[in-house]
Amino acid sequence: MADWDDLKVFLAVARGDSLSRAGRVLKMDAATVGRRVTRLEAALGARLFSRSPQGYGLTDEGARLVHHAEAIEAEMERAREALSGPGEGISGQIRIGAPDGCANYLLPQVVAGIVAENPALEVQIVALPRVFSLTRREADMVIAVSRPEQGRVIATRIADYHLSLAASTAYLADAPPLDTLDDLRTHRVIGYIPDMIFDRELDYLADLGVEQAPVTSNSVSVQLNLIRQGAGVGVVHDFALPATQGITRVLTRTFRLTRAFHLVRHADDRKVPRIERFSQALVAGMRAEIARLEAQVHQQATA
């Protein structure tokens, strides 16, 4: 019969694909992790992992056990929440994966408000321009631009947000006229590195009618700083503009994009009170912050 401690080790190895990565998560050495896996396999009478130089891959039996182990994990989390009581606030560790634009210009102020009200809460923001794996538990939840079409996940639409063309005032002072989208042919355009776009919703150049940007980065923050330094014209999140001096929107009457953020979680976390309460606070905070920052941009434009 397997105990919960061994199942925790099993899940860590399944999510990390290696003993060493699991050990770092569990704060134990790899040899101990390996012994615990072997003990669990003996107790269950089944081979849970296939070992190879590339790491530990789940066997069919291991893949079936993952679902049961995650269900137990969720039950243990609910039990912990029930014992702590509703008046204790949100506690424990929560990791959020997010595109770097959202992670840099929205999440800091939203998360700051949540942790101020929940002192026992630890939040990790992983800002990477790529897709996160909830199955491997790289994060407890992910903020995505495209709604997922497959997988055992639940997705909540957070809010629409807008993007505009922008350039630094110094660049515009010396650059050719920019009165129409056709004028972009005489300007340097800043954009994403084409083969590093991880979501089709981020392919802004197609909306501009531009085939290739001469100055590119896979990071929204780098793109914004390139614009600030006068490297050219680029597409920026409206909610990022209040945090950046010396940048102004251009062609606002002819170009504006609308996209949406979604909060994506593992389906098994729906009944975990800690995750549910944090998700509700995060969604409410992001909706309010997007509305506040975009209203500020609009007021500045009409002043």
UniProtKB/TrEMBL annotation:
Example of a GO MF term: DNA-binding transcription factor activity
Q: Keyword check for Methyltransferase, yes or no.
A: no
Keyword field: DNA-binding, Transcription, Transcription regulation
- Cross-referenced SUPFAM superfamilies: Periplasmic binding protein-like II (SSF53850), Winged helix' DNA-binding domain (SSF46785)
HTH lysR-type domain: residues covered = 1-59
**Which terms does the UniProt entry file under GO BP?**
DNA-templated transcription
Q: Per the similarity annotation, which family is this?
A: Belongs to the LysR transcriptional regulatory family.
UniProt name for this protein: LysR family transcriptional regulator
